[in-house]
Amino acid sequence: MTNKTLRILVADDQHFQRLKIEKILNQLGYFRIAPVQSFDEIEILTCLASRPFDLLIISTTLVAERKIDLDAFCRDNPLIHHALIYDNQQAQLPPMPQPLPPAVQISLPGAPGSESLRQLMAIIDPPVQRPGLQVLPWLRELSRGLRS
User: 143 pLDDT band (50/70/90 cuts)?
Assistant: First the structure.
């Protein structure tokens, strides 16, 4: 079951790309998404926010003309738990090392697609493992009694 309280920040200068990523995340069950179009907006949101963002999905084009180390910015910012950094082309999620680090930071050579985002969210928001169904002895006896 998806954690509907995850806060996700999607940053891309292309409106269509932000919408595409947001739509995919919505289809996966995530709805607390803040789309932004500039690095200035990211800085404001990650400096003034009272609660951290669970995931930042960001295009490298936002910092292409600036001298910003995007990896370091994401890693050193306490209000960003996980980051997906991509260029504006289609790409697949690279294999993840095992065991997973506490904070996941991935760089893609292209824009994330449906499968890449599904795999990423499975890492960040793994499904809860539930024990198998237990049949209580008195319930089993009751069901046997009803069949007689």
Answer: low
pLDDT for position 57: 96
Instruction: Spell out the SS3 assignment of the chain.
Output: CCCCCCCEEEECCCHHHHHHHHHHHHHCCCCCEEEECCHHHHHHHHHHCCCCECEEEEEHHHHCCCCCCHHHHHHHCCCECCEEEECCCEECCCCCCCCCCCCCEEEECCEECHHHHHHHHHHHCCCCCCCCCCCCHHHHHHHHHHHC
Domains of the chain are 8-147 (3.40.50.2300)
How would residue 7 be classed by pLDDT, with cut points 50, 70 and 90?
very high
